[in-house]
TrEMBL record:
Entry keyword set: Glycolysis, Isomerase
Top-rank taxon, per record: Bacteria
Organism: Mesobacillus foraminis
One Pfam family in the UniProt entry: His_Phos_1
Family matches, as SUPFAM superfamilies: Phosphoglycerate mutase-like
Lineage: Bacteria, Bacillati, Bacillota, Bacilli, Bacillales
Protein name (record): Putative phosphoglycerate mutase
Amino acid sequence: MLTLYVARHGETEWNAEKRMQGRLDSKLTEKGKRDAMLLGERLKGTRFEQIISSPSGRALETVELVRGGRSIPVTTDERLFEIHLGSWQGKTDAEIKGLYPAQFHSYWNLPELYENQGGESFHEVKQRISEFIGDLEKRVPSGNVLVITHGVVIKALYLICRNSRINEIWNPPFIHGTSLTVVNVAEGRRELLLEGCVEHCRHP
């Protein structure tokens, strides 16, 4: 059986500013770095076949902190990128709400209707993460794989595991920085074992 350990990247400067990143990037905050190292401590007893990361700088920075001194092979996959937010990227929530009020409302309240010219829909994110998992299951049928990705991607993963519709994408839990989700993948089934856990971040 294949078991995926899926974590969001650590908190970034733009996360702290409530600024949408999408495919743009910003550095991890000190909290983000500390939480990533704590996640590494939490997972140090788990043997991983490989780590697969979003190509975003914030994800790769998180990978290095989580991996620490371990010699685990790391690859990237573009299907793990965060949702492309088009012209929203780099703007704060307040700026987006002012410039694109109807679109912003759809994003948070009617996600199945959300569209962003130059960006992606939630349907498209769900499709690419579904393809990623299907391909990975064929290549690595058993063992543990660590996946470092983004909040909306993890939310889409939950929809797949629960066989839920897009309008449920914002259902709990909230995906905090370095939160850990564990999924068993076998014969086309995707079973959630742990959801958005940040127990490691509570360490002193």
